[in-house]
Amino acid sequence: MTAQHSPSGSMPAEAEAFLDAHPEIEAFDIILHDSNGIGRGKIIRRHELLSFYNNGRHLPISILGLDICGEDVHETGLIWDQGDGDLRAWPIPGTLVPLHNTTPPRGEVLMSLYDLDGAPMSSDPRHALQRQVDALASEGLHPAGAFELEFFLLANERGPDGKMQPARDVLDGRKSSKTEVYSVDHLHGMLPLFSDIYAGAAKAGITAETMISEYAPGQYELTLHYRTHVMQAADDLMRLKRIVRAQARAHGVTACFMAKPNEDYAGSGMHFHVSMMDATGTNVFVEAEEGVWNATILHALGGLRATMGESMLVFAPHANSWRRFAAQSYAPVSPTWGVNNRSVALRIPAGDIRARRIEHRPAGVDANPYLVAATVLAGIRHGMQNKIDPGPETVGNGYEDAQDAPVIPLDWRQAIEAAKASAFLKAALGEEMHRTFTAIKAAEYARVMRTVSEVDFDLYLHTV
Fold it and tell me: CATH for 133-457, among 3.40.50.720, 3.30.590.10, 3.40.50.300, 1.10.150.130?
C-alpha cells in the first residue's frame, strides 16, 4: 500500500529506525488523550507499527465524545449526528519511545486525530493547545513552561473506616499516617518505586527532577524540567502520569491522581509554570530592574485574572476537583496574584529574573494539561492584547485578600454554566472542543447528581 501524507508530520523513517534499534519490543501502546485526559487507543503488534506510520489508523469519531466512564455523550454531536464514522489518527513525531519494566517489552507512541482530508479534528485537546501556540507564534511569541505533578501513593485496599490509606513503604512495608512534609527519610522507603519512575521517564525522554514528600500522608510531588515548547511540557505531564501509575502498580500500590482523596488534608495540584519568549529567545516577562514589573507580565496576569472565573471548569473539571478548594489548603480560592506567595492563584516565583515566569496554581492534577495550557495561553493573550491591569499585588494571606477580585464559581455546577456561556473559553478551546468538553461535563454532573452515595445514607437514612 502506498504511504499517505501524514498531517502530523510523522515519517515512516522514525518507525523504521526505532524498530532497528529495539528488536526486543513486541507491541506498542498507541494513545490518544480525550477531554478528560484519559489515554484511549489500542495495543498493536510490532509488525503493525510501520503501517501506522505509513497510513495512520482509523478510529471512531466517538472516541473523543466519551465521559469519564467511557460512555457516549450524545450532546457532543460526535456520535449519531455524524454516524459515528471513522477518522484517522496519526502518530506524533518524536513520541515513539520504549516503555520501562514491561513483560514482554512494549513501546508507546502518542497520536492525534484528523479528519479524513487531513484537517485537525477540532475536539482533540492536543489540537486546541496547538491553536493557541500557533496564534502566539503569529504574534512573534513562543510559550515555554513546565507542569508540576502532585499525586498520592495509596494502599490497594481501604482502611477499616472505608477511607483510602497511605501505601506502606515498598522497601520494607513500614507504614506512616503522618504528614511527612519535606521528610527526606520518608522518601527513602519508596526509593525502589521512585527509581523505576525515573528510569521510565528517562526512556520516554522526560527529564524528571526533584521528588518531594508533600503536605498530606502518602502525597508526593515530582517536578519536570522546563521545556522551550509548551506542547512538550503537556506531553511530559501526560506520559509521566502513565509512568507513575504503571510503576506504582508494579510495586503493589496505587498511584492516585484525584484532586482530593482525603478530606482532612491538602489535595493535589498541577501548577503550570509559563514564560513567553520572543523570536530571539528573550523572555519578555523579564523586568529591566528586579521587582519593577514590566507591562507585559502585568497584562498577562490581568488577562489570567479576568478570565479565571469562566475558565474554572478546565482547571477543576470533576466533582471531586471542587473539594480541593478550601482556605489555607494551598489551593487558591480567588483570582489573586503575588510574588513569592503560595496563597495566591497567580504566583511570580522568587529567583533569577532571567527565568521570570508565572506559576498558574488553580488546576488540579485531575485536569487535562493540554486544555489547561490552551486556556492559560489564551488568557495571557487576552490580557496582553487588551492591556488589562491585574490590580494590586496581594501581600500576605491570599485567602483573605479577595476584595475587588473577579467572581469565580462556587461549585462544579456554577463552573459548568459559566463555561457554557463563556465566549472567551469558546475562543480559547475552539468552538468544537468547547462544545464537546462542556457537554461531557454536563453529562457527568447529571450522572453524579442522580447517584445515591454513602454520605446520603450516613446523613439521612435514620434522621429524616
Answer: 3.30.590.10
